[in-house]
Amino acid sequence: MVGRDDELRRLRRLLDGSEPSIAMLGGEPGIGKSRLVQELFTGLPETVPVLDGQADPGTLSRPFEVLLDAIDSCHRSTELDPELLVVVTDASRSMIDRIQAGLEIVRLLTTPGPSVVVFEDLHWADSESVALFERIADLPGSRLLIGTYRPDEVTRRHPLADLLTRLERRYMVTNVRLERLNLAETSRFLKSVTGRPPAYRTALSLHNRTGGNPFFLEELIKANGDEDLDTLCDRPLPWNVAEALRRQLDDLDPTEKRIVEAAAVLGRKVPFDLLAAVTSHSEPELIDALRDLVRRGLMVETGDDEFSFRHALTREALVDEMLARQRRRLHELALETLLSTGSKDYALVAHHARGAGRYLDMVEAARRGLATYLAMGSPYQALQLAEMGLDELPDDVELLACGARAAWLAGLLDDAQELGRRWLAAAGTRGERADALRLLVRLSWEIGSSGSMQERAAELRAEIEPLDDGPAKAHAYAAIAQAYMLHDDTERAIEWADKAITLGEELGLPGVWLAGKVEKGSALVNFAAGVDDGIKLLNEAAQEAEQAGEWLLAARSLNNLYNLLPGGPADWAAALERMRTFAERAGFESLAVAAYFQGRARLAVQEGNLGGALAELESARRRDRGLLRTRNGIDYHGVFFAGLLLEAGELDRADTVIRGMAEATDTYTMLTQTSVPGLQFHLVARRGQTEQARELLRAVLDAVRVTGVTGRDFAHDIISAGLVGGLGVEELRPVAAAIDDPFFDDAWRWLADAQIAEAAGDHAGALAGYRRAVAEPSMLLPATKGSGHVGAARCLLALGDLDAARQHVRTAEPLLARWSGWRVAELSALRGRLGLGTPVAGDQALTPREREVAVLLAEGLTNAELARRLYISPRTAAVHVSNILSKLNLESRTQIAAWVKAGS
Questions:
Q1: Strands 630-631 and 634-635
Q2: 325: helix, coil or strand?
Q3: What is the reported pTM?
Q4: Is 815 strand, coil or helix?
Q5: Contact 740, 708 (CB under 8 A)
Q6: Contact in structure between 149 and 160 (CB atoms under 8 Å)
Q7: How many C-beta atoms surround the C-beta of residue 705 within 10 A?
Q8: pLDDT digit string (tens) for 684-703?
Q9: What average pLDDT does range 817-828 have in this prediction?
Q10: What domains appear along the chain, each with residue ranges and CATH number?
């Protein structure tokens, strides 16, 4: 049951009402309509009666067949008066009498109390069952009436078409349209079935192959048996799926059949002109044929003069049935057409060259396409071309180099490493080996192996030592500087960056001296005396890289710079948007998607907006989960996301994320070795599992001693959770003592020491620490600063200075206004002790109508749909939305949805 949570919630919400409700559930075959209905049934109490009738293709001529099938599904049917069934099935009776008898049957079987009536596949239903369905809506009582249907099979003459129009006119109908699974949902589906996450390329291949249709995915997996999921991409279609798809072609005339077969060979996206050339049809003839194929639902128009099969598997089933000579001839015709017109679609040229067996043309198209697709920010397309060429020339250095870089840009680190190693092995000169090592240095960092990165950097230094001062050595200087910068060896990073800048300028290589500036600036901002110079250097690098068209360097500069700019959140957000634009132009997925949304979430945290931060990370995980991208061996967003969920008190959700990180991490890196146990400790401590927390604390302190990684909010979070979890002061004191960063962590150290002092009963000492930590300027984030003021207020309360305590509480309120969870709970408790009452905020600040609007917004309704649902004007709906955003201090409808979900 993947990707249908919102739809299921909408149906369950309808069932909770006291009035009759109608839901029309539409979607293509295999999309999961029946599965969704069954999931709804699973969550119902046994006392709720259910009538579930199914129409079949042969029921069109059998009156009331859907009702009769529904009666058979109900355990109460034995209590019915047999005479009612006789009336319904007696063809000699008037239609009015038979419908009235049917309604009485439904009423008896579904009352008293709430009930569910489902008529499935109404597109096949007889007209009498359709008429009865409409009349059921008039019956009183708390009844949810659900109809499922396939929109593409409802013609204007079908009785269901008129029914849909009348229902919309007479009743408040909830229309639920099930769409295909996206790439992320396909990955989740595959993981839920197989128990392990699929590789990105496997998920992408199966998503493209099935179009995200759950039925087709399930059938492919069944046919695969116990074989590795990665082998599924190339396995033939199961016979039942292939036969079902081919049946769509049974009533095509010979001309349409030939057009469909040609389109199947031409690829996933078929240009109109190419199809016309291959089939030798005139434009009017082809337009008429395609219009009919689109009307039948066999093909869809995906763009101007471009067509695709509605189901990619239909194309596959057709190609599998064709003779090899027939396929090859069509490829040859397509290739000659593309070459004669000078087509720049190198991927399409290479595809048809391979299909035609013309491998030299294929390799030539691959070489040309690599540079083109990398330049336009399409690394995955470039990788596919490189691999196509490598099938013919497996040791070609140019193809290996471009393929490895493309795989890295696309975030496919395993593929990038494999191609990088092959590139290094095939390299014939020191310069070529140095180029390969440069990428392998970066890849070692990306996969979380700092030791391997240093080893590769040493290899690179040895490789370039005998070289003259040429481009290979200049690029290597920049790569070595980056390795030192990533390893926090600031002095050496600056030394090698200066070498790269000097040699890059001498040789006129902007990509080198700009890279040197990026590495030097990134190193400088890591220590106090260099922050200003680092910011200046990164700013210069970003501007100059943009002017030079060095998009990747421009994106990296801004990614390392945006939250250090002096202008504040607005300027930071603008810089983050520029970073994303540059990353997209470079095709660098990890910055364009994962880092971008992580950056937006961090900005929300810096503004004290916990709901906004969670919404951003949820958006990131929806978009990026399909890539199953990992960094440093774990879920890219996992540590941050789990930490925010713990902040919000969503312990069960945090548990799920933490378990996923722990299971997916085979070898802990410096980050995960401390962060994952720290999150586990926080979770069990918040749950009151003291002994388990005590064991995990020992693991955390051991990890800190080994890695030296601690400081900032890490110690504060551990101490906060440990105190709630019942651990003693002496057990937690080593955590505060472990903070080791002399510049960034002063405020955090004072905060941690104050927490320990307060827990030890030293309220005067704790008060001094809290006040010092929150004094301006402070490195603390708004929510943490709010907790510092709350701590100071507690100490003042204990010391008897109530007025000063109240002042700290008032200072904390705006800092925590858009936060939630344990920090806000502490503030609320202290307000009560100080006689300040509870401020109106959050849900309590909304009117009943605004709360209703917020729930509907979470369903994804537009202002126009809100207006129709609530019988208000679209302008009034917009006012409600604006008021909700203002009162909750949120910025988008997505954040409202996240807020509703968090509070549901």
A1: antiparallel
A2: helix
A3: 0.73
A4: helix
A5: yes
A6: yes
A7: 11
A8: 999 889 999 999 998 888 88
A9: 89
A10: 5-177 (3.40.50.300), 183-235 (no CATH), 246-343 (1.10.10.10), 344-426 (1.25.40.10), 429-544 (1.25.40.10), 668-740 (no CATH), 744-839 (1.25.40.10), 843-903 (1.10.10.10)
